[in-house]
Each structure stands twice: as C-alpha cells, then as structure tokens.
Amino acid sequence: MGFLSAYDVTKNPAYLHAANQAADFLLGTQTPANSGRWPDYYDSTGPASYGFTSLDDGAAGISDFFLNVYQRDVVTGLPAECLTATKPAEYLKSAERGMDWLMGQAQAPKGSTITQQCYWKWRDPSNASTPVYTGVGSGQAGIIYEIDRLGNSISSFDASWKTPWQQYVVAGSRFLENQITSSGAVPEKVGGRAVYNTGLYAGAAGVACVFYNLYYNHKSPSDGLSAYAGQWLNDANKVMNWVESVAVPQRNGLAWHVSEGVNGNKVLSTEMAEGAAGIGWAELQRFFATGDPTHLGYAYGAGDWLLSQELKPSASLSPEKGGYWNAYVGKDDVYTSLDLGVAGIGVFLFDLSKLRSANASCYLAASREAQDWLQSVAVTSSSGLSWYIHRSGGVWSGLGESSWNWGSSGIISAIATMNGWSVDLPRDLYGLPTLKLS
Description:
Blueprint: H1 2-10, H2 13-28, E1 42-43, E2 46-47, E3 51-52, H3 59-75, H4 88-104, E4 123-124, H5 140-157, H6 165-177, E5 196-197, H7 204-218, H8 229-245, E6 248-249, E7 254-255, E8 259-260, H9 276-290, H10 296-309, E9 333-335, H11 342-353, H12 360-377, E10 379-381, E11 384-386, E12 390-392, E13 395-397, H13 408-417
Helix pairs in contact: 1-2, 1-13, 2-3, 3-4, 3-5, 4-5, 5-6, 5-7, 7-8, 7-9, 8-9, 9-10, 9-11, 10-11, 11-12, 11-13
C-alpha cells in the first residue's frame, strides 16, 4: 500500500511497478498453491506452517491489497512500463480466492448454523486454545469489514463470482453483536479475561467503526442488506457511547486508558492503534456515517489533548525539527509509525483540521509539524529514505522496517494522506467520505 499511495500522489510508474512486483511475490506464496491462504512468512526455508485469517496479519488484508493493485492496473489504466509477467486479472482472482478461503474458515457457535452466526479463529491451523479476537486488527470486526468491502467491490468487477458473501457479513456481525456487554463494552477476545480495550486496533472504537461502515454501506432502502442497517447503527452507537463514557478528562481535552476492567491497562495513550488519535478518528467516522455532529466534542477533545502533549525537539536533538509525541504518558517512548507513532497522530490531526472548528488551524499546524519531524529523523542512504521504529532514552532502534503498521510503508502513506492522497487509511480501516460542518 505504501507503493500505491506513492503512485497515486506522484503518478510515477516505478511505484506501481513495485506494487505489481509485490503482488506477484504474494501470488506465488499461497500455500497450497492458488488456495487463497497465505503463510505468516515465506523465507529461504519455505513457507511458515501457519497462517492467519485477520485483516492485520492474514488473508483478509492480503486480499484487500490484491484488489487495490487490480484497481490501479485495470480501472485506472495500467501504464505499459508497469506490466509484469502476471496479468492483472490474476490479482482479482487472488482476492476472490482469499475471500473464498476466509469464508471457508468460518465456524458456527454451538447451537447455531453458519448462516445464523459465525466467527473466525485468528490462526490456521487452529485448535481449542486458538483465540477468537473481537477487534479490527486480529479479529472478528476486521474480517466482517473486509468481507463486506471486498464482497461489494469484487461483485462489481466479476459477475461470475457467486460466493454468498452477504450471509457471512450478517452472521459474523450477529456473533460480534452478541459479544457486546450491556454497557456497550467489548471484550478483547471471546471467553478471555475481563479486558475491554478502548482503541481502534483491538478495542471498542474499532468495533464501532465497523458497525458504522456497515450501516453507511447498506442504509439505502434499495440495498440488499438494508434490513440490518438500523441494528448496525444501534450497535455502533452503543459501543461508541461506552467509549465516550470512559474518557478521562484532562486539563486540555480528553484522553483514554488503553483498556478498562479489572485487568485493564490504565496508561493514557496518544496512538492511532490504542489511544486518543484512533478514538478521535473513530468519532469522525461516527459523524461522517450519520451526519450527526452531536458527538464531535469527543473528537475535538482528543485533538486538544494531543496538542497539549506535543513535544518540540530540544537543541540536543538537532537537526530534528517539527513536533512529536510520546506513545504513552509518563514513558519516554517515541515511535515514528502509523500504528503507534507520529505518522498516525499526524493523519488524525490533519483529518480533524478539515472540520472548520475553532482549533482547526492548530490541528493543521500540528499535522505539518509531525511531517517536519518525520522528514528530519529520516535516514538517508544510497537506497533512499528509511526510518527507525522507536526511540527510548534517546536511543533509536529498528532501522529499515518496511511494514505498514511499523515502518516505511505506513509512514509514506500517512505523508501522502496529509498531502492530497484521496485515501484516508490511518491503519486498517478506510475513512468514510468527509462531511463539512455547515
């Protein structure tokens, strides 16, 4: 996705060519061949013996990547210099195979059929101890989201694909709905400890976002799933209202603990994955899905608190410039990444600045300072720019990580979003179309 964001913004065909090469590699790593199942890794010794179902780690996310490459190659027109040995149609077929494999992994809880309720275990092969996560990154919410997103898109491109994806969206969402507590909290995993995450990656904010997306995608009376839209909106509001109820007021704005419950992590986090940036972004999605600005105060509260937490490089950190954030209050942990760090926070503040609020100019300025800081800490080599993952106690670690959540791919995409990329993708979920306040 990093290459695709760079291509979309610059139109440099070299970036699209690189994305095609990555897709070609993934085509050849399906295990078994052409199965739509991908191992966790593939190295000189061969494929890993296990794979994942999830959006963050497995088939759901890889299928999404294939569809994105196909769309750039075919729908927007593939420049001749980007052609590889593989036909773009094979990318669409691989997205279909990934979805088919994923739906084949669905299991029904005791007393139900697959068409009534279904869930997915995180890892394949699985056993009785393999967890069933509820969240976006590793669990149920992310898989439902991706089946709905890809099901709609693939069906429009390939009329011959007849997989009944809608029934998995309905049955999967019903199972997820049944995990929501009476207060609106959602446990991190089914049958696990009483830990209720608040954030976007593994928590309630992400679950709410998925329900808001389902509502938004199917609210039209002519849509085949419109009968479920009202319930999905109720689920989304119930969960998001719980997130709002556990906000921790600060001198400036609002913050959240990483998780609530007896075993919860009561650290306050700035991050996109499990902190204020991701929760604030989820509140924006609530507004974009419903058109109701009533709850935007929570988005502004998250933004105002992040403004108060921004740090400016001291003289000892020269040539650093701009601004950055510690991931957790009271801890000297700075991340560059989309997931835990400055890149993701910058995207949220940039998105928030579009709403013409009283502090809009401050949010925009802070997002630009995040970009300035990322540029100033980039490491230049003969291969180009790269970033360290993490700095603690003044010591950097993890140079050259290329991944979406932790490395250069996500950072490139964040910078693209803050400079005109039409895709708002601060982690695993695509942002809904932006609404303007009247």
